[in-house]
Amino acid sequence: MHTPDPRRTTAAGTTANGDTGPAPSAVSAPPPGAPAGDARAAGSPATGADDGDHPRVGWTEGEVPHTARWRSESGAPAPRRVVAGDDRMTADAAYKLVCEGTAVLWRGDYHNARQLLQAMARRADRKRPARKRRRGATGPATPVAGDQGAPDESPARAFHLHRKAQAQRARLLGMLLVPLEPGPDADAGPRVPLRRAPDVGAACREAWGAGDAAEPAVISLRELLGLIGAHEWRRKGVPIPALGGERVHAYYGVFSPVRGEYVDLVAEAPLPAGAPEVAFDIGTGTGVLAALLARRGVRRVVATDQDPRALACARENAARLGVAERVEVRAADLFPPGRAPLVVCNPPWVPARPSSPVEYAVYDPDSRMLRGFLDGLAAHLAPGGEGWLILSDLAEHLGLRTRAELLHLVDAAGLRVLDRLDTRPRHGRATDPTDPLHAARAAEVTSLWRLTAISGAPPSDTA
Ligand SMILES: C[S@@+](CC[C@H](N)C(=O)[O-])C[C@H]1O[C@@H](n2cnc3c(N)ncnc32)[C@H](O)[C@@H]1O
Fold first, then answer.
1. pLDDT of 407-418, one tens digit each?
2. What residue numbers bound the domain in which 208 lies?
3. Each residue of 55-99: pLDDT tens digit?
4. Is residue 401, in this structure, part of any structural domain at all?
5. What one-character-per-residue DSSP string does 59-74 give?
Protein backbone atom coordinates (compact mmCIF):
# COMPACT_ATOMS: atom_id res chain seq x y z
CA MET A 1 0.00 0.00 0.00
CA HIS A 2 1.42 3.13 0.79
CA THR A 3 4.91 3.06 0.36
CA PRO A 4 6.40 3.80 3.69
CA ASP A 5 7.10 7.18 2.40
CA PRO A 6 4.51 7.78 -0.24
CA ARG A 7 4.65 11.42 -0.92
CA ARG A 8 2.45 14.24 -1.75
CA THR A 9 4.11 16.84 -3.81
CA THR A 10 4.23 19.58 -1.30
CA ALA A 11 5.79 22.81 -0.38
CA ALA A 12 8.29 21.26 1.94
CA GLY A 13 8.59 17.87 0.33
CA THR A 14 6.37 16.34 2.97
CA THR A 15 6.77 12.62 3.32
CA ALA A 16 4.92 10.01 5.24
CA ASN A 17 5.47 9.96 8.96
CA GLY A 18 5.86 13.65 9.21
CA ASP A 19 9.23 14.05 7.61
CA THR A 20 9.24 17.50 6.21
CA GLY A 21 12.59 17.42 4.55
CA PRO A 22 13.92 20.32 2.62
CA ALA A 23 13.32 20.46 -1.06
CA PRO A 24 15.89 18.38 -2.92
CA SER A 25 17.61 21.47 -4.16
CA ALA A 26 18.23 22.64 -0.62
CA VAL A 27 20.43 19.84 0.65
CA SER A 28 23.62 19.81 -1.37
CA ALA A 29 26.85 21.16 0.09
CA PRO A 30 27.63 24.83 -0.32
CA PRO A 31 30.61 25.81 -2.45
CA PRO A 32 33.52 27.66 -0.89
CA GLY A 33 32.76 31.29 -0.37
CA ALA A 34 29.23 30.91 0.85
CA PRO A 35 27.55 34.10 2.01
CA ALA A 36 29.76 36.07 4.33
CA GLY A 37 29.46 39.21 6.35
CA ASP A 38 27.49 40.36 9.29
CA ALA A 39 23.80 40.49 9.60
CA ARG A 40 22.46 43.54 7.86
CA ALA A 41 19.68 44.13 10.24
CA ALA A 42 18.42 46.92 8.07
CA GLY A 43 15.06 46.85 9.66
CA SER A 44 13.34 47.01 12.95
CA PRO A 45 10.73 44.64 14.32
CA ALA A 46 7.47 44.73 12.45
CA THR A 47 4.33 42.75 13.01
CA GLY A 48 2.49 40.64 10.51
CA ALA A 49 -1.11 41.70 10.08
CA ASP A 50 -4.07 40.56 8.05
CA ASP A 51 -5.67 42.85 5.51
CA GLY A 52 -8.88 40.86 5.73
CA ASP A 53 -8.23 38.72 2.67
CA HIS A 54 -4.64 37.63 3.06
CA PRO A 55 -2.15 37.72 5.89
CA ARG A 56 0.55 40.34 5.50
CA VAL A 57 4.11 40.64 6.62
CA GLY A 58 5.77 43.90 7.57
CA TRP A 59 9.36 45.09 7.92
CA THR A 60 11.45 48.27 7.77
CA GLU A 61 14.31 48.84 5.38
CA GLY A 62 16.35 52.04 5.34
CA GLU A 63 13.87 53.40 7.85
CA VAL A 64 11.06 52.94 5.34
CA PRO A 65 8.24 50.63 6.46
CA HIS A 66 7.09 48.01 3.96
CA THR A 67 4.35 45.43 3.89
CA ALA A 68 3.56 42.61 1.46
CA ARG A 69 1.24 39.66 1.20
CA TRP A 70 2.45 36.66 3.18
CA ARG A 71 2.30 33.42 1.20
CA SER A 72 2.39 30.08 2.95
CA GLU A 73 0.77 26.99 1.52
CA SER A 74 2.02 25.06 4.54
CA GLY A 75 -0.05 27.34 6.75
CA ALA A 76 2.89 28.91 8.60
CA PRO A 77 1.91 32.20 10.26
CA ALA A 78 3.49 35.42 8.99
CA PRO A 79 6.71 36.10 10.90
CA ARG A 80 6.34 38.90 13.43
CA ARG A 81 9.87 40.21 13.15
CA VAL A 82 11.67 40.54 9.84
CA VAL A 83 15.05 42.02 8.93
CA ALA A 84 16.66 42.32 5.53
CA GLY A 85 19.76 40.24 4.78
CA ASP A 86 22.18 40.04 1.89
CA ASP A 87 25.32 38.28 0.68
CA ARG A 88 27.34 39.58 3.61
CA MET A 89 25.28 37.70 6.14
CA THR A 90 26.94 34.63 7.62
CA ALA A 91 25.09 31.39 8.20
CA ASP A 92 25.83 31.70 11.92
CA ALA A 93 24.28 35.16 12.01
CA ALA A 94 21.24 34.06 10.04
CA TYR A 95 20.77 30.96 12.17
CA LYS A 96 21.04 32.98 15.35
CA LEU A 97 18.40 35.40 14.09
CA VAL A 98 15.91 32.71 13.17
CA CYS A 99 16.49 30.89 16.47
CA GLU A 100 15.57 34.15 18.17
CA GLY A 101 12.38 34.35 16.12
CA THR A 102 13.51 36.94 13.56
CA ALA A 103 12.99 36.10 9.90
CA VAL A 104 15.50 37.17 7.26
CA LEU A 105 14.18 38.71 4.03
CA TRP A 106 16.83 38.06 1.41
CA ARG A 107 18.01 40.90 -0.82
CA GLY A 108 21.21 39.31 -2.16
CA ASP A 109 21.96 36.70 -4.77
CA TYR A 110 19.38 33.91 -5.13
CA HIS A 111 21.95 31.10 -5.23
CA ASN A 112 23.66 32.46 -2.17
CA ALA A 113 20.31 32.31 -0.41
CA ARG A 114 20.02 28.64 -1.32
CA GLN A 115 23.48 27.98 0.03
CA LEU A 116 22.65 29.89 3.17
CA LEU A 117 19.59 27.70 3.64
CA GLN A 118 21.73 24.58 3.29
CA ALA A 119 24.16 25.92 5.86
CA MET A 120 21.30 26.71 8.22
CA ALA A 121 19.92 23.20 7.71
CA ARG A 122 23.26 21.72 8.73
CA ARG A 123 23.20 23.77 11.89
CA ALA A 124 19.66 22.62 12.63
CA ASP A 125 20.64 19.00 12.02
CA ARG A 126 23.74 19.06 14.15
CA LYS A 127 23.58 16.23 16.65
CA ARG A 128 22.53 17.53 20.01
CA PRO A 129 22.13 15.55 23.18
CA ALA A 130 18.63 14.13 23.25
CA ARG A 131 16.29 16.33 25.26
CA LYS A 132 19.06 18.27 26.90
CA ARG A 133 17.98 19.60 30.28
CA ARG A 134 18.98 22.54 32.32
CA ARG A 135 20.39 21.41 35.62
CA GLY A 136 17.53 21.01 38.04
CA ALA A 137 14.85 21.59 35.40
CA THR A 138 11.56 19.76 35.85
CA GLY A 139 8.76 18.93 33.45
CA PRO A 140 9.05 17.71 29.87
CA ALA A 141 12.21 18.65 28.05
CA THR A 142 11.97 20.60 24.83
CA PRO A 143 12.92 18.61 21.76
CA VAL A 144 15.52 20.19 19.53
CA ALA A 145 15.81 19.87 15.80
CA GLY A 146 18.28 16.99 16.00
CA ASP A 147 16.46 15.19 18.80
CA GLN A 148 15.45 11.71 17.77
CA GLY A 149 14.59 10.37 21.20
CA ALA A 150 16.43 7.89 23.37
CA PRO A 151 16.85 4.33 22.05
CA ASP A 152 14.51 2.97 24.70
CA GLU A 153 11.66 5.37 23.86
CA SER A 154 8.29 3.82 23.15
CA PRO A 155 7.63 3.94 19.39
CA ALA A 156 4.72 6.35 19.87
CA ARG A 157 6.83 8.75 21.94
CA ALA A 158 9.73 8.49 19.51
CA PHE A 159 7.31 9.28 16.68
CA HIS A 160 5.86 12.33 18.43
CA LEU A 161 9.31 13.62 19.37
CA HIS A 162 10.49 13.09 15.82
CA ARG A 163 7.54 15.04 14.43
CA LYS A 164 8.06 17.81 16.94
CA ALA A 165 11.70 18.09 16.05
CA GLN A 166 10.89 18.07 12.33
CA ALA A 167 8.27 20.78 12.85
CA GLN A 168 10.77 22.91 14.74
CA ARG A 169 13.34 22.41 12.00
CA ALA A 170 10.76 23.40 9.37
CA ARG A 171 9.82 26.50 11.37
CA LEU A 172 13.42 27.66 11.69
CA LEU A 173 14.36 27.01 8.07
CA GLY A 174 11.09 28.59 6.95
CA MET A 175 12.31 31.94 8.23
CA LEU A 176 14.65 32.64 5.35
CA LEU A 177 12.36 34.65 3.08
CA VAL A 178 12.44 35.85 -0.52
CA PRO A 179 10.34 38.55 -2.20
CA LEU A 180 7.91 37.93 -5.04
CA GLU A 181 6.74 40.53 -7.53
CA PRO A 182 3.93 40.35 -10.06
CA GLY A 183 5.19 39.09 -13.42
CA PRO A 184 4.88 41.02 -16.69
CA ASP A 185 1.29 39.89 -17.16
CA ALA A 186 -1.39 38.24 -15.06
CA ASP A 187 -0.83 34.81 -16.62
CA ALA A 188 2.95 34.76 -16.23
CA GLY A 189 2.90 34.18 -12.49
CA PRO A 190 5.19 36.03 -10.10
CA ARG A 191 8.93 36.60 -10.35
CA VAL A 192 11.67 36.70 -7.73
CA PRO A 193 13.43 40.08 -7.98
CA LEU A 194 16.84 38.74 -6.92
CA ARG A 195 20.07 38.31 -8.85
CA ARG A 196 20.30 34.89 -10.60
CA ALA A 197 16.77 33.92 -9.57
CA PRO A 198 15.10 31.25 -11.72
CA ASP A 199 11.78 31.65 -13.45
CA VAL A 200 9.28 30.57 -10.81
CA GLY A 201 6.16 31.74 -12.66
CA ALA A 202 4.91 28.32 -13.78
CA ALA A 203 5.61 26.65 -10.42
CA CYS A 204 3.69 29.35 -8.51
CA ARG A 205 0.88 29.47 -11.06
CA GLU A 206 0.39 25.72 -10.81
CA ALA A 207 0.22 25.83 -7.01
CA TRP A 208 -1.88 28.97 -6.66
CA GLY A 209 -3.81 29.21 -9.88
CA ALA A 210 -3.47 31.77 -12.64
CA GLY A 211 -3.98 35.41 -11.80
CA ASP A 212 -3.25 35.01 -8.09
CA ALA A 213 0.02 36.91 -8.07
CA ALA A 214 -1.10 40.46 -8.67
CA GLU A 215 0.62 42.05 -5.68
CA PRO A 216 4.07 41.95 -4.09
CA ALA A 217 4.45 39.06 -1.70
CA VAL A 218 6.95 37.34 0.55
CA ILE A 219 7.45 33.58 0.76
CA SER A 220 9.88 31.34 2.60
CA LEU A 221 12.67 30.17 0.32
CA ARG A 222 12.18 26.64 1.57
CA GLU A 223 8.57 26.68 0.49
CA LEU A 224 9.44 28.23 -2.85
CA LEU A 225 11.98 25.44 -3.45
CA GLY A 226 9.22 22.96 -2.65
CA LEU A 227 6.95 24.60 -5.23
CA ILE A 228 9.71 24.38 -7.83
CA GLY A 229 10.34 20.71 -6.94
CA ALA A 230 6.62 19.93 -7.18
CA HIS A 231 6.50 21.62 -10.58
CA GLU A 232 9.31 19.35 -11.80
CA TRP A 233 7.60 16.24 -10.40
CA ARG A 234 4.37 17.24 -12.07
CA ARG A 235 6.10 17.88 -15.38
CA LYS A 236 7.99 14.56 -15.39
CA GLY A 237 5.27 12.41 -13.86
CA VAL A 238 5.69 9.09 -12.08
CA PRO A 239 5.83 5.86 -14.12
CA ILE A 240 3.29 3.31 -12.94
CA PRO A 241 4.27 -0.29 -13.75
CA ALA A 242 0.67 -1.47 -13.37
CA LEU A 243 -0.29 1.02 -16.11
CA GLY A 244 2.34 -0.40 -18.43
CA GLY A 245 4.85 2.22 -17.33
CA GLU A 246 2.62 5.13 -18.35
CA ARG A 247 2.97 8.14 -16.14
CA VAL A 248 0.75 9.81 -13.62
CA HIS A 249 1.32 13.52 -13.02
CA ALA A 250 0.68 14.79 -9.50
CA TYR A 251 -0.38 18.39 -8.97
CA TYR A 252 1.11 20.41 -6.16
CA GLY A 253 -0.30 19.18 -2.85
CA VAL A 254 -1.82 16.01 -4.32
CA PHE A 255 -0.68 12.61 -3.03
CA SER A 256 1.77 11.13 -5.51
CA PRO A 257 2.10 7.37 -6.13
CA VAL A 258 5.86 7.81 -6.32
CA ARG A 259 6.36 4.72 -4.20
CA GLY A 260 3.58 2.69 -5.57
CA GLU A 261 3.67 -0.86 -4.23
CA TYR A 262 0.07 -0.34 -3.19
CA VAL A 263 -0.93 0.21 -6.81
CA ASP A 264 0.31 -3.30 -7.61
CA LEU A 265 -2.01 -4.71 -4.98
CA VAL A 266 -4.98 -3.10 -6.73
CA ALA A 267 -3.71 -4.47 -10.03
CA GLU A 268 -3.46 -8.01 -8.62
CA ALA A 269 -6.57 -8.38 -6.46
CA PRO A 270 -9.29 -10.49 -8.12
CA LEU A 271 -12.17 -8.34 -9.28
CA PRO A 272 -15.44 -9.30 -7.56
CA ALA A 273 -17.53 -11.87 -9.43
CA GLY A 274 -19.06 -10.63 -12.64
CA ALA A 275 -16.52 -7.93 -13.38
CA PRO A 276 -18.18 -4.81 -12.16
CA GLU A 277 -20.10 -2.41 -14.27
CA VAL A 278 -19.21 0.29 -11.83
CA ALA A 279 -16.65 0.91 -9.08
CA PHE A 280 -16.08 3.76 -6.66
CA ASP A 281 -12.63 5.16 -5.87
CA ILE A 282 -12.90 7.09 -2.61
CA GLY A 283 -10.28 9.82 -2.18
CA THR A 284 -8.88 9.50 -5.68
CA GLY A 285 -5.89 11.90 -5.44
CA THR A 286 -4.14 11.72 -8.81
CA GLY A 287 -6.80 9.26 -10.00
CA VAL A 288 -4.21 6.48 -10.32
CA LEU A 289 -6.43 3.76 -8.88
CA ALA A 290 -9.47 4.90 -10.84
CA ALA A 291 -7.45 4.77 -14.06
CA LEU A 292 -6.12 1.34 -13.15
CA LEU A 293 -9.62 -0.02 -12.49
CA ALA A 294 -10.76 1.38 -15.83
CA ARG A 295 -7.80 -0.29 -17.50
CA ARG A 296 -8.77 -3.53 -15.76
CA GLY A 297 -12.09 -3.38 -17.54
CA VAL A 298 -14.39 -1.64 -15.09
CA ARG A 299 -16.78 0.20 -17.35
CA ARG A 300 -17.53 3.16 -15.08
CA VAL A 301 -15.45 4.39 -12.17
CA VAL A 302 -16.80 7.16 -9.97
CA ALA A 303 -13.80 8.82 -8.31
CA THR A 304 -14.30 11.24 -5.43
CA ASP A 305 -12.14 13.69 -3.53
CA GLN A 306 -12.62 16.81 -1.46
CA ASP A 307 -9.52 18.60 -2.62
CA PRO A 308 -10.09 20.76 -5.72
CA ARG A 309 -6.49 20.22 -6.82
CA ALA A 310 -6.96 16.45 -6.63
CA LEU A 311 -10.17 16.67 -8.65
CA ALA A 312 -8.48 18.66 -11.41
CA CYS A 313 -5.43 16.40 -11.28
CA ALA A 314 -7.47 13.19 -11.51
CA ARG A 315 -9.41 14.54 -14.49
CA GLU A 316 -6.23 15.45 -16.29
CA ASN A 317 -4.62 12.08 -15.62
CA ALA A 318 -7.73 10.22 -16.75
CA ALA A 319 -7.63 12.19 -20.01
CA ARG A 320 -3.91 11.59 -20.53
CA LEU A 321 -4.34 7.87 -19.91
CA GLY A 322 -7.25 7.66 -22.31
CA VAL A 323 -9.85 6.60 -19.71
CA ALA A 324 -11.73 9.89 -19.32
CA GLU A 325 -14.89 8.35 -20.72
CA ARG A 326 -14.86 5.66 -18.05
CA VAL A 327 -13.76 7.76 -15.08
CA GLU A 328 -16.19 10.27 -13.61
CA VAL A 329 -14.43 12.54 -11.13
CA ARG A 330 -16.66 14.30 -8.64
CA ALA A 331 -16.38 16.32 -5.45
CA ALA A 332 -17.74 14.40 -2.47
CA ASP A 333 -17.08 13.80 1.18
CA LEU A 334 -16.22 10.10 0.88
CA PHE A 335 -18.92 8.26 -1.12
CA PRO A 336 -20.90 9.30 -4.18
CA PRO A 337 -24.61 8.42 -4.04
CA GLY A 338 -25.58 4.84 -4.81
CA ARG A 339 -23.94 1.44 -4.56
CA ALA A 340 -21.23 -0.37 -6.45
CA PRO A 341 -19.93 -3.94 -6.57
CA LEU A 342 -16.44 -2.60 -5.86
CA VAL A 343 -15.49 0.33 -3.62
CA VAL A 344 -11.78 1.11 -3.26
CA CYS A 345 -10.18 3.45 -0.72
CA ASN A 346 -6.59 4.30 0.16
CA PRO A 347 -7.04 6.67 3.11
CA PRO A 348 -4.29 8.56 4.91
CA TRP A 349 -2.72 5.96 7.16
CA VAL A 350 -1.23 7.71 10.17
CA PRO A 351 -3.80 8.65 12.84
CA ALA A 352 -2.26 11.93 13.91
CA ARG A 353 -2.93 15.63 13.48
CA PRO A 354 -1.47 17.11 10.27
CA SER A 355 0.84 20.00 11.06
CA SER A 356 -0.10 21.79 7.85
CA PRO A 357 -2.89 21.58 5.27
CA VAL A 358 -0.70 19.73 2.76
CA GLU A 359 -0.26 16.81 5.17
CA TYR A 360 -3.89 15.72 5.02
CA ALA A 361 -3.14 12.89 2.56
CA VAL A 362 -0.85 11.23 5.10
CA TYR A 363 -2.30 12.14 8.50
CA ASP A 364 -5.87 11.25 9.35
CA PRO A 365 -6.78 12.95 12.63
CA ASP A 366 -8.65 10.51 14.83
CA SER A 367 -8.80 8.13 11.81
CA ARG A 368 -11.69 10.21 10.44
CA MET A 369 -11.44 9.01 6.84
CA LEU A 370 -10.71 5.41 7.78
CA ARG A 371 -13.70 5.29 10.12
CA GLY A 372 -15.92 7.14 7.64
CA PHE A 373 -15.04 4.70 4.88
CA LEU A 374 -15.63 1.62 7.01
CA ASP A 375 -18.83 2.97 8.58
CA GLY A 376 -20.34 3.90 5.21
CA LEU A 377 -19.09 0.97 3.17
CA ALA A 378 -21.92 -1.54 3.71
CA ALA A 379 -24.47 1.08 2.67
CA HIS A 380 -22.62 1.63 -0.61
CA LEU A 381 -21.88 -1.96 -1.58
CA ALA A 382 -24.08 -3.78 -4.04
CA PRO A 383 -25.15 -7.24 -2.74
CA GLY A 384 -22.08 -9.48 -2.67
CA GLY A 385 -19.83 -6.52 -3.46
CA GLU A 386 -16.37 -5.88 -2.07
CA GLY A 387 -14.67 -2.95 -0.42
CA TRP A 388 -10.92 -2.79 -0.88
CA LEU A 389 -9.24 -0.94 1.94
CA ILE A 390 -5.59 -0.18 1.31
CA LEU A 391 -3.81 0.44 4.59
CA SER A 392 -0.28 0.41 5.90
CA ASP A 393 0.30 -1.07 9.33
CA LEU A 394 2.93 1.58 10.08
CA ALA A 395 0.59 3.12 12.66
CA GLU A 396 0.57 -0.23 14.47
CA HIS A 397 4.36 -0.34 14.60
CA LEU A 398 4.39 3.24 15.85
CA GLY A 399 1.97 2.36 18.64
CA LEU A 400 -0.71 4.69 17.26
CA ARG A 401 -3.30 2.01 16.46
CA THR A 402 -3.56 -1.69 17.25
CA ARG A 403 -4.58 -4.45 14.88
CA ALA A 404 -7.40 -5.28 17.31
CA GLU A 405 -8.72 -1.71 17.02
CA LEU A 406 -8.72 -1.92 13.25
CA LEU A 407 -10.53 -5.25 13.28
CA HIS A 408 -13.02 -3.86 15.78
CA LEU A 409 -13.80 -0.96 13.40
CA VAL A 410 -14.37 -3.48 10.60
CA ASP A 411 -16.63 -5.58 12.75
CA ALA A 412 -18.58 -2.65 14.17
CA ALA A 413 -19.27 -1.45 10.62
CA GLY A 414 -21.04 -4.74 9.79
CA LEU A 415 -18.18 -5.95 7.61
CA ARG A 416 -16.07 -9.07 7.45
CA VAL A 417 -12.67 -9.76 5.98
CA LEU A 418 -12.66 -11.99 2.89
CA ASP A 419 -8.93 -11.89 2.31
CA ARG A 420 -5.82 -9.75 2.70
CA LEU A 421 -3.06 -9.14 0.17
CA ASP A 422 0.21 -7.84 1.57
CA THR A 423 3.22 -6.03 0.21
CA ARG A 424 6.40 -4.62 1.71
CA PRO A 425 7.97 -1.29 0.93
CA ARG A 426 10.85 -1.39 -1.48
CA HIS A 427 12.22 2.10 -0.94
CA GLY A 428 15.59 2.71 0.69
CA ARG A 429 14.23 4.35 3.81
CA ALA A 430 12.86 1.02 5.03
CA THR A 431 16.41 -0.29 5.34
CA ASP A 432 18.06 2.86 6.70
CA PRO A 433 19.18 2.08 10.27
CA THR A 434 19.93 5.76 10.97
CA ASP A 435 16.28 6.68 10.49
CA PRO A 436 14.78 7.38 13.93
CA LEU A 437 11.67 5.46 12.90
CA HIS A 438 13.67 2.62 11.40
CA ALA A 439 12.21 -0.22 13.44
CA ALA A 440 8.66 0.72 12.48
CA ARG A 441 9.49 1.33 8.85
CA ALA A 442 11.44 -1.92 8.54
CA ALA A 443 8.46 -3.88 9.84
CA GLU A 444 5.84 -2.07 7.75
CA VAL A 445 3.44 -4.06 5.61
CA THR A 446 0.82 -2.53 3.37
CA SER A 447 -2.33 -4.54 2.87
CA LEU A 448 -5.31 -4.60 0.61
CA TRP A 449 -8.16 -5.78 2.80
CA ARG A 450 -11.00 -7.38 0.85
CA LEU A 451 -14.11 -6.58 2.86
CA THR A 452 -17.75 -7.44 2.38
CA ALA A 453 -20.97 -6.66 4.22
CA ILE A 454 -21.92 -9.31 6.79
CA SER A 455 -25.66 -9.24 6.26
CA GLY A 456 -27.17 -10.53 3.03
CA ALA A 457 -29.33 -7.42 3.00
CA PRO A 458 -27.01 -4.46 3.40
CA PRO A 459 -28.35 -1.36 5.14
CA SER A 460 -30.19 1.08 2.96
CA ASP A 461 -28.21 3.72 1.15
CA THR A 462 -28.46 6.93 3.05
CA ALA A 463 -26.37 8.93 0.64
C1 LIG B 1 -3.58 8.78 0.69
S2 LIG B 1 -4.36 9.77 -0.51
C3 LIG B 1 -4.75 8.49 -1.74
C4 LIG B 1 -4.88 9.03 -3.15
C5 LIG B 1 -5.10 7.96 -4.22
N6 LIG B 1 -6.32 7.20 -4.01
C7 LIG B 1 -3.94 7.01 -4.29
O8 LIG B 1 -4.11 5.87 -3.89
O9 LIG B 1 -2.87 7.40 -4.73
C10 LIG B 1 -5.94 10.09 0.22
C11 LIG B 1 -6.85 10.99 -0.60
O12 LIG B 1 -8.09 11.08 0.09
C13 LIG B 1 -8.60 12.39 -0.06
N14 LIG B 1 -9.58 12.61 1.01
C15 LIG B 1 -9.34 12.87 2.32
N16 LIG B 1 -10.50 12.96 2.98
C17 LIG B 1 -11.50 12.76 2.07
C18 LIG B 1 -12.92 12.73 2.16
N19 LIG B 1 -13.56 12.91 3.31
N20 LIG B 1 -13.64 12.50 1.01
C21 LIG B 1 -13.00 12.30 -0.16
N22 LIG B 1 -11.65 12.32 -0.28
C23 LIG B 1 -10.91 12.54 0.82
C24 LIG B 1 -7.37 13.26 0.00
O25 LIG B 1 -7.60 14.54 -0.58
C26 LIG B 1 -6.37 12.41 -0.79
O27 LIG B 1 -6.42 12.74 -2.17
1. 999 999 999 999
2. 7-233
3. 999 999 989 999 999 999 888 999 999 999 999 999 999 999 999
4. yes
5. EEETTEEEEEEEE-TT
